[in-house]
Amino acid sequence: MKKFDAQPSIHLNLTRRHFLGAMVAVGAASVAPAAGAFGQQSVTLNPDIAQAIADHFSSIKTMKGGFLQIGPRGDQLSGSFFIQRPGKLRFNYDPPSRMRVICDGNNVQVINDQTHTNNMYQLSKTPLSLLLANKIDLSADMVRNVEAQPDLTKITLGNRTVFGDATIAMIFDSKTYDLRQWTVIDPQGKTTDVIVNNVKTNVSFDDSVFRIDYSGTNR
């Protein structure tokens, strides 16, 4: 299990590939990364229970909160997120980082004011499309594995995107079905953990939260 300091260090040289991979991670608890808890003691979960967990997550149409991101080299970034299904998302990084990501239902805009870059990607070609759909269907080909322990359940999804064959492991509380963590594994096997905090659900957002400025972007 990875550990993180109370005062996170800030790593600003995050690539767009790792950034979008990390941004598929949102949830509803503030805990240390739990992915390392799975191993030989895990068992295959009943498909009906696994789908019930996925349905619980899909039923949360709006949420906002804070996040702590732990990168492959232990680098840490924090910020706030906003989500509205289907297809809308915004992540704002805390200073001194000057990064943010906005998804308006069709495209994903990645902005870094420090490097003066502004890039656009089709939502359907990023891992975010797995997270922002109205429903997560575990009967689909994207399901790679489902494991269970008494306290935690891990559902692993995979999809070939513009960023390669990305794998996303969602870790839920086995009793409440609440999401605790996302772990993203890129095609090189590098992992990014995202833990969230102060989550509120069933909230309302102004349309401007998810509005993309299409001028001056690189597609």
TrEMBL record:
In the UniProt record, the signal sequence range is: none
Keywords from UniProt, A to Z, are: Lipoprotein, Signal
Has keyword Heme?
A: no
Please give the PROSITE patterns that the UniProt record associates with this protein.
TAT
Q: Which InterPro entries match?
A: LolA/LolB/LppX (IPR029046), OM_lipoprot_carrier_LolA-like (IPR004564), TAT_signal (IPR006311)
User: What is the official name of this protein in its record?
Assistant: Outer membrane lipoprotein carrier protein LolA
Q: Which organism is it from?
A: Rhizobium mayense
